[in-house]
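From the pipeline queue, job 12 of 40. The input is one protein chain; the requested action is below.

Action: predict structure.
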Amino acid sequence: MQNTCHEKKISDSALKKCFAECDVEVSAFEKLTLVALKEFKQWQPQVILLEAGLGGRTDAVNIIDADVVVVTQIGLEHQQYLGDSVEAITKEKSGVFRNNQQVILTENAGYAALLQAAAQIGAQVSIVKPSETVPPFHPDNIALAKGVITALQTRLPIMPAMLTQGFNQAFRKGTQQILMQTPLVLLDGACNPSAVRWLVQSLKQR
């Protein structure tokens, strides 16, 4: 597993040291989160992106009070932990909301419940609408990314030309990653039904 921060990498020795110092019973993912946060404190980056990999409310990264929260498409996943319905999973995801925090949403499954949860806790919601497609990324995710950049514009100004260039050059391993052209061999980590549907739709458009 490669652990990077721009050009910096978290060394194996740092991982081992932090794991050894962690004297409470937590999962490997929680330990890795602690390692990352410790390194971030040392490196002092301008922006830190944290993904709640398991819902939100009980996820390890929820110990951080984020400036901006994004909720992507909600689908059935990790149901043994999050619940068997979109409504239950939505409740878990809204557990990352904070008072006066900026929350960026699209009008997707669970949207109404997310709005209600944000209102109850006093979070500030921005609704974004997809307007463009930058394969292989879902149009909603492009809109959400733009929403975050807009929310942080006063602290992290990005020119429109830089934004366009960034989207066109964006690459994520495991997201419709082409390993071979002939025959076409593609790697994608679609992990829930909605992600699989988007993958199928994208492949049909090729």
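Job complete. The CA atoms of residues 93 and 180 lie 36 Å apart.
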